[in-house]
Amino acid sequence: MRREDDLTSQLPALEGPVAPDPAFAARLRDRFLAESGHRPQPQSTAVPIRTLPVATRPPRKRLLDLAAVAVLLLSMVGGIARVSTGGDPTPTIQAPETAQPAVMLGGTAARDNRYEGPIPKSGRYKLRLDTDPDERAFHGPGYVYEGVGFVLTSSMSGPFETTLDVFDLETGTEIWTRYLVLEGTVAITPDGVVATIPIDDTSTPESGIPGEVPTSQPYRVALLELESGEVIWKSTEGYGGNGEAAYPTVVVDGQRIFLSDNLGTLAALDLASGNEIWRQALDRTPSGDLDQEICPAGLEPPGDCWRRSSEPPLLAVKNGSVYFADPVSGRITALSADDGAERWSVFIPDRIPGLTLTPWVVAFDDGLAVQLFDPEAGTPSYLGFWRAEDGTEAWSIEPRLGGVASDGQSLFISSASADRSCCQLSRIDAQTGDVIQSANIADGQVAAYLSTGSVVLETITQGSSETPPSVTTLIGLDPQTLAETWRVTLPERGCGFPAFPVPDPEHIVCFGFGTTGLRIFEWSSPPASPVASQPEPTALPFERGDTLVTTADGVALRAEPDLDAEIVERIPEAGSQLVFIGEAVTGSDGAVWYRVRSNETALTGYIRADLLAPEE
Amino acid sequence: MRGSARADAEQGVDTHGIAALYDATLDHIYGYLLLRVGGDAPIAEDLTQETYLALAEQIRAGAMPPAPLAWLLRVARNKLIDFYRRQERTALRIGRWTEEAEQQGAGAEGIERLPDRELLRAALNRLPPGQRLAIALHYLDGLSVTEIARELEKSEHAVESLLARGRTGLRAYLIESEA
User: Fold this and answer.
1) Which residue of B lies nearest to A9 if distances are taken between CA atoms?
2) pLDDT band at residue B161 under the 50/70/90 scheme
3) CA angle, corner A370, sides to A365 and A372, nearest 5?
4) What's this model's pTM, rounded to 2 decimal places?
5) What is the pLDDT of residue A69?
6) Chain A neighbors of B53, CB-CB under 8 A
7) Inter-chain contact A20–B30, Cβ cutoff 8 Å?
8) Is residue A458 scored above 60 in pLDDT?
9) CA nearest neighbour of A454 among A358, A531, A397
């Protein structure tokens, strides 16, 4: 008979490395590299394309969707819905080779418009697939995850409804759909979709009151199967639901879900189990210092104004802090992501008596950037940054903001004008608020930042009053130089809302609104001419104060970044010293220009980047 | 520089280095976890994934651990303990596991033909999760009863009981299999 001591002394002999399943090892390798900020190595084994079953739609109170059935039947016999011209076989849309990180989808979710994904190929695209819209309307944003399209959808008429609809991007068929709580947001993660669903998720949600902010019922947080939308778990706790719009926001950070609701509840849940880890009740008492009605330009109360109390709180998570920005109480509060303990809370009514918050709130390692929106002007007009450590406001700017995206370090911001005739795109250091560089852009808004190295602008050429917007153009800019590096033209009634990331370099997915449906465009032909004025991407701009030297004799120092601009001074000899004073811009000729000061004369102006070099 | 290349440079590590680190450590981490979860590959995979994603977060934050394998092993152990705690809270599931283990034990014909090491591994796998974890932490990871009690949030008496029952379970299994 063995003695116990003998047994336990033998246990260490069991230790040793064991190779896991190769497919698992390859999948985890790619994900590990991607999530640690590295590109997957080419020798990695690609993850097989996920094939998703077509799931039965959950019961819902609306007319049988004949169009969807037709699409489904067509897809089963190899057809697709309303295919555009061209008889080529329908290409397969390849899934990304790496598991994508969690992404937040929806109106009040914290979003930085940053996407992991490929760069589209320049050129003209043709419409490959256009599904019939039904009575609902996409309200976006759309998102492509492992070759599958996700979009939030609102009803156009009848009861207010919000659903998450999931589409096969090869056929345009709906794979599954599920009711969410009104205006709820979702987070798509490798483990499933985190969503807020009605307590009774088998029945149609209660109707709202037309013309009023819809009322809401309590709801639960749920993790849904990516493939089928089936519930993996749902929270035992209920949230929201006091008759006001719920606007539940979910943000996933690592293995935790953070949730805020209209009642001021802020909770952390475990992604694996749905168990609540902590919960805080934040005071959402309306501040007397704030206008209690929010009125768009030209309207007087009650008109189409809405109550401030119906404004949703915004949520963002980063670096161990959870931020709760509340347009009702006028407070921004930071809490510990670990246990919900409050770190600081600041009151900012002097910045927002007439303003409210936009859906754009982004947390950085060092703090929180929040856009404030002026309803009367119709544009966001204030961007502030509050420090993570103590809640002091580090900087603010007050341009008429267009769109915003972030690469995690900087903000890419376009300015806006009423007639959309101008604009500038600026890269701003999130820590300091300094403009690192800027470029003139004809028109457009920042639509996305692609981790593969593009700031994406979206422009729409308006059609006539009889025709809908006709052409959408997506323009990719190098984030270091802001020079254009690619351009995609989507003809034939345009795009609606482009979904980022693109599924592969030759396809663009769009979700339309109202009378348009899901559209998929494929690359058709190269641009008529190579992308114009495409300078070589420059190295990272020099530090302010660095000494540069000219690389040629007779270099012109100009008043503006333009070859036609006035020459302030002509610098006679190559090797003359200048000081970089901190601005790199893309001129109207597409070249990158640096703003410098001459050491000799102290005159300042612009010199093209290719005529300057760092001092040896 | 752009995109991830810049991030790499800021962190002082390159993609090849990160990939090599993964390749060099994966089998150790997976083997460590597999032994401690009773040979259940899906659970070991889940915990391995959690462990590496924790490292990815560190790297992304610019805080690459100076001794990555030791760091990974420590995190793997924490993940294992967290997993055990979650399971423990789900009493029904644990009960099912125990039942399964008992059923496996009852029907383990032919196991006496396994070599000793495999027999011991089978015996360890058969233990209920709590006993197996206590045995592994004590006899494989070298933690004292006090340290295990702190990690598992149990009394020292409860840990000693787990260890005693685990040892008895190992012996009983081997006696059965040698009979």
Assistant:
1) B139
2) confident
3) 175
4) 0.56
5) 23
6) 31-32, 35, 254
7) yes
8) yes
9) A531
